[in-house]
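note to self — DONT lose this again. spent like an hour looking for the file last time. sequence + predicted structure for the chain T wanted, 146 res
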Amino acid sequence: MEKRLNIMESQPMAAKAMYGLEAYLSTTQLSKSQKELIKIRASQINGCAFCIDMHTKDALLNGETNQRIFLLNAWKETALFTEEEKAILAITEEVTLIHQKGLTDDTYKKAEEIFGASYLSEIIMAVVTINAWNRIAISAQLDVPR
Protein backbone atom coordinates (compact mmCIF):
# COMPACT_ATOMS: atom_id res chain seq x y z
CA MET A 1 0.00 0.00 0.00
CA GLU A 2 1.30 3.42 -0.96
CA LYS A 3 2.16 5.80 1.88
CA ARG A 4 -0.16 8.79 2.03
CA LEU A 5 -0.32 11.94 4.10
CA ASN A 6 -0.97 11.86 7.82
CA ILE A 7 -4.18 13.87 8.08
CA MET A 8 -3.95 14.08 11.86
CA GLU A 9 -0.50 15.70 11.64
CA SER A 10 -1.26 17.97 8.72
CA GLN A 11 -4.57 19.10 10.22
CA PRO A 12 -4.01 19.37 14.00
CA MET A 13 -7.28 21.24 14.61
CA ALA A 14 -9.19 18.39 12.98
CA ALA A 15 -7.27 15.92 15.14
CA LYS A 16 -8.18 17.95 18.22
CA ALA A 17 -11.86 17.88 17.22
CA MET A 18 -11.81 14.11 16.63
CA TYR A 19 -10.11 13.47 19.96
CA GLY A 20 -12.69 15.78 21.51
CA LEU A 21 -15.42 13.47 20.22
CA GLU A 22 -13.57 10.52 21.77
CA ALA A 23 -13.33 12.40 25.08
CA TYR A 24 -17.07 13.09 24.94
CA LEU A 25 -17.78 9.40 24.25
CA SER A 26 -15.83 8.42 27.37
CA THR A 27 -18.41 10.36 29.43
CA THR A 28 -21.47 8.63 27.97
CA GLN A 29 -23.58 5.81 29.38
CA LEU A 30 -22.24 3.42 26.75
CA SER A 31 -20.23 0.55 28.20
CA LYS A 32 -16.78 -0.25 26.82
CA SER A 33 -18.24 -3.39 25.27
CA GLN A 34 -21.03 -1.47 23.55
CA LYS A 35 -18.59 1.10 22.18
CA GLU A 36 -16.28 -1.59 20.81
CA LEU A 37 -19.19 -3.48 19.20
CA ILE A 38 -20.18 -0.25 17.45
CA LYS A 39 -16.60 0.41 16.35
CA ILE A 40 -16.00 -3.11 15.06
CA ARG A 41 -19.32 -3.43 13.24
CA ALA A 42 -19.09 -0.04 11.50
CA SER A 43 -15.48 -0.77 10.56
CA GLN A 44 -16.50 -4.14 9.09
CA ILE A 45 -19.17 -2.48 6.96
CA ASN A 46 -16.74 0.24 5.83
CA GLY A 47 -13.92 -2.23 5.16
CA CYS A 48 -11.47 -0.45 7.46
CA ALA A 49 -8.85 -3.08 8.28
CA PHE A 50 -6.87 -0.68 10.48
CA CYS A 51 -9.89 0.03 12.70
CA ILE A 52 -11.10 -3.59 12.75
CA ASP A 53 -7.66 -4.66 13.93
CA MET A 54 -7.47 -1.95 16.60
CA HIS A 55 -10.97 -2.39 17.98
CA THR A 56 -11.06 -6.19 18.02
CA LYS A 57 -7.85 -6.06 20.09
CA ASP A 58 -9.37 -3.42 22.39
CA ALA A 59 -12.58 -5.44 22.74
CA LEU A 60 -10.63 -8.56 23.72
CA LEU A 61 -8.65 -6.56 26.30
CA ASN A 62 -11.96 -5.32 27.72
CA GLY A 63 -13.31 -8.87 28.14
CA GLU A 64 -15.18 -9.41 24.88
CA THR A 65 -15.19 -13.01 23.67
CA ASN A 66 -13.70 -14.30 20.44
CA GLN A 67 -16.99 -16.00 19.59
CA ARG A 68 -19.01 -12.78 19.74
CA ILE A 69 -16.42 -10.94 17.67
CA PHE A 70 -16.36 -13.77 15.09
CA LEU A 71 -20.16 -13.67 14.84
CA LEU A 72 -20.60 -9.91 14.92
CA ASN A 73 -21.36 -9.64 11.22
CA ALA A 74 -24.14 -12.24 11.75
CA TRP A 75 -25.53 -10.74 14.97
CA LYS A 76 -29.13 -11.05 13.77
CA GLU A 77 -28.72 -14.81 13.46
CA THR A 78 -27.48 -15.58 16.99
CA ALA A 79 -28.67 -15.33 20.58
CA LEU A 80 -25.19 -14.26 21.74
CA PHE A 81 -26.19 -10.59 21.78
CA THR A 82 -28.70 -8.96 24.15
CA GLU A 83 -31.74 -7.07 22.91
CA GLU A 84 -29.97 -3.83 23.84
CA GLU A 85 -26.88 -4.84 21.86
CA LYS A 86 -29.03 -5.84 18.90
CA ALA A 87 -30.71 -2.43 18.96
CA ILE A 88 -27.28 -0.76 19.07
CA LEU A 89 -26.03 -2.90 16.18
CA ALA A 90 -29.14 -2.13 14.11
CA ILE A 91 -28.52 1.60 14.65
CA THR A 92 -24.86 1.12 13.78
CA GLU A 93 -25.68 -0.59 10.49
CA GLU A 94 -28.42 1.82 9.45
CA VAL A 95 -26.46 4.97 10.26
CA THR A 96 -23.28 3.58 8.65
CA LEU A 97 -25.31 2.69 5.55
CA ILE A 98 -27.30 5.94 5.78
CA HIS A 99 -27.61 6.17 1.98
CA GLN A 100 -29.76 3.03 1.86
CA LYS A 101 -32.77 3.63 4.12
CA GLY A 102 -31.42 5.96 6.77
CA LEU A 103 -32.19 5.24 10.40
CA THR A 104 -35.57 3.57 9.96
CA ASP A 105 -38.59 4.47 12.05
CA ASP A 106 -38.81 0.91 13.40
CA THR A 107 -35.20 0.84 14.56
CA TYR A 108 -35.44 4.35 15.99
CA LYS A 109 -38.68 3.70 17.91
CA LYS A 110 -37.44 0.41 19.36
CA ALA A 111 -34.16 2.01 20.45
CA GLU A 112 -35.94 5.02 21.95
CA GLU A 113 -38.14 2.65 23.98
CA ILE A 114 -35.10 0.74 25.24
CA PHE A 115 -32.68 3.62 25.81
CA GLY A 116 -34.56 6.93 25.94
CA ALA A 117 -33.64 10.03 23.96
CA SER A 118 -30.38 10.94 25.72
CA TYR A 119 -28.82 7.46 25.56
CA LEU A 120 -29.98 7.06 21.95
CA SER A 121 -28.25 10.34 21.09
CA GLU A 122 -25.03 8.99 22.63
CA ILE A 123 -25.29 5.81 20.55
CA ILE A 124 -25.76 7.81 17.35
CA MET A 125 -22.76 10.00 18.19
CA ALA A 126 -20.62 6.89 18.79
CA VAL A 127 -21.62 5.56 15.35
CA VAL A 128 -20.96 8.91 13.67
CA THR A 129 -17.53 9.14 15.31
CA ILE A 130 -16.27 5.71 14.22
CA ASN A 131 -17.56 6.36 10.71
CA ALA A 132 -15.46 9.53 10.62
CA TRP A 133 -12.40 7.62 11.89
CA ASN A 134 -12.98 4.91 9.26
CA ARG A 135 -13.04 7.49 6.49
CA ILE A 136 -9.85 9.09 7.76
CA ALA A 137 -8.05 5.73 8.03
CA ILE A 138 -9.21 4.49 4.63
CA SER A 139 -8.46 7.79 2.85
CA ALA A 140 -4.97 7.88 4.38
CA GLN A 141 -4.52 4.15 3.67
CA LEU A 142 -3.51 3.37 7.24
CA ASP A 143 -2.16 -0.15 7.32
CA VAL A 144 -2.57 -2.78 10.00
CA PRO A 145 0.54 -2.87 12.17
CA ARG A 146 2.54 -6.06 11.76
